[in-house]
């Protein structure tokens, strides 16, 4: 009887050792390396910066292309572009402020519920709550960053068109500057986010071209009398 019991205990030991090894390997796979950077931590400010600059560039370049399709006057393009810059920056700032503030309210409400639950269970967690409050998003900072990023992108086509008198050359320069800037913004965003550079840049570039082309075509259609309003 001793021999079968010994073999049975040995088999159980092997099973336990196998389970322990599998759990260890699983933990090693799940735990990221110390030198591996978590790109998701950059999500908030990356979105406000890169996407804000893209929005500013595409919006103002498209607006100037639309105005340029019916007006050859450089002043008309610059004034329309500047008005779009101010309106767009304000819109981005207000939208970002409301969005982040709403997110902050939701997180604060969740923290209060967790605090009440801990108090009802006689569990102390004041230090943890304090750390969580320090990590809450800042609506004012997010709004300022979004408006600044939009303005940086929007000012590029304005500067490109401001000193060119010939209408056709001015339009071509706006498209060229917007193309280069879109490629740069797409590449920067992909590098910071750890995504493929070519794919990200191509996606941003094609989207910008489509916006400029649609705005140019529809504005020219309406402004040239092809559509009666």
TrEMBL record:
<dbReference type="GO" id="GO:0016020">
    <property type="term" value="C:membrane"/>
</dbReference>
<comment type="similarity">
    <text>Belongs to the CCC1 family.</text>
</comment>
<keyword id="KW-0472">Membrane</keyword>
<dbReference type="GO" id="GO:0030026">
    <property type="term" value="P:intracellular manganese ion homeostasis"/>
</dbReference>
<protein>
    <recommendedName>
        <fullName>Vacuolar iron transporter</fullName>
    </recommendedName>
</protein>
<keyword id="KW-0408">Iron</keyword>
<dbReference type="InterPro" id="IPR008217">
    <property type="entry name" value="Ccc1_fam"/>
</dbReference>
<dbReference type="GO" id="GO:0140315">
    <property type="term" value="F:iron ion sequestering activity"/>
</dbReference>
<feature type="transmembrane region" description="Helical">
    <location>
        <begin position="204"/>
        <end position="223"/>
    </location>
</feature>
<feature type="transmembrane region" description="Helical">
    <location>
        <begin position="141"/>
        <end position="164"/>
    </location>
</feature>
<dbReference type="GO" id="GO:0010039">
    <property type="term" value="P:response to iron ion"/>
</dbReference>
<keyword id="KW-1133">Transmembrane helix</keyword>
<dbReference type="GO" id="GO:0006879">
    <property type="term" value="P:intracellular iron ion homeostasis"/>
</dbReference>
<dbReference type="Pfam" id="PF01988">
    <property type="entry name" value="VIT1"/>
</dbReference>
<keyword id="KW-0926">Vacuole</keyword>
<dbReference type="GO" id="GO:0005774">
    <property type="term" value="C:vacuolar membrane"/>
</dbReference>
<keyword id="KW-0812">Transmembrane</keyword>
<feature type="compositionally biased region" description="Basic and acidic residues">
    <location>
        <begin position="112"/>
        <end position="134"/>
    </location>
</feature>
<feature type="transmembrane region" description="Helical">
    <location>
        <begin position="76"/>
        <end position="94"/>
    </location>
</feature>
<feature type="region of interest" description="Disordered">
    <location>
        <begin position="112"/>
        <end position="135"/>
    </location>
</feature>
<comment type="function">
    <text>Vacuolar Fe(2+) uptake transporter.</text>
</comment>
<keyword id="KW-0410">Iron transport</keyword>
<keyword id="KW-0813">Transport</keyword>
<dbReference type="GO" id="GO:0005381">
    <property type="term" value="F:iron ion transmembrane transporter activity"/>
</dbReference>
<keyword id="KW-0406">Ion transport</keyword>
<dbReference type="GO" id="GO:0005384">
    <property type="term" value="F:manganese ion transmembrane transporter activity"/>
</dbReference>
<feature type="transmembrane region" description="Helical">
    <location>
        <begin position="171"/>
        <end position="192"/>
    </location>
</feature>
């Amino acid at each position: 009887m001793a021999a079968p019991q010994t073999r049975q205990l040995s088999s159980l030991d092997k099973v336990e050792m196998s389970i322990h090894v599998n759990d260890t390997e699983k933990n090693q796979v799940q735990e990221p390396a110390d030198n591996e950077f978590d790109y998701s931590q950059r999500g908030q400010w990356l979105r406000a910066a890169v996407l804000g600059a893209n929005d500013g560039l595409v919006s103002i370049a498209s607006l100037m292309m639309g105005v340029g399709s019916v007006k050859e006057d450089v002043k008309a393009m610059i004034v329309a572009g500047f008005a779009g810059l101010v309106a767009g920056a304000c819109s981005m700032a207000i939208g970002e402020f409301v969005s982040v503030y709403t997110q902050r309210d939701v997180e604060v409400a969740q923290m209060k519920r967790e605090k009440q639950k801990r108090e009802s269970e006689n569990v102390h967690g004041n230090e943890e709550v304090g750390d969580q409050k320090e990590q809450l998003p800042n609506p004012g900072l997010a709004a300022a960053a979004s408006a600044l990023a939009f303005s940086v992108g929007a000012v590029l086509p304005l500067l490109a068109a401001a000193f060119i008198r010939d209408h056709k050359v001015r339009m071509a320069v706006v498209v060229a500057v917007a193309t280069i800037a879109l490629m740069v913004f797409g590449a920067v965003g992909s590098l910071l986010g750890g995504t493929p550079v070519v794919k990200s840049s191509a996606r941003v570039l094609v989207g910008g071209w489509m916006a400029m082309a649609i705005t140019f075509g529809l504005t020219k259609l309406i402004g040239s009398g092809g559509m009666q309003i």
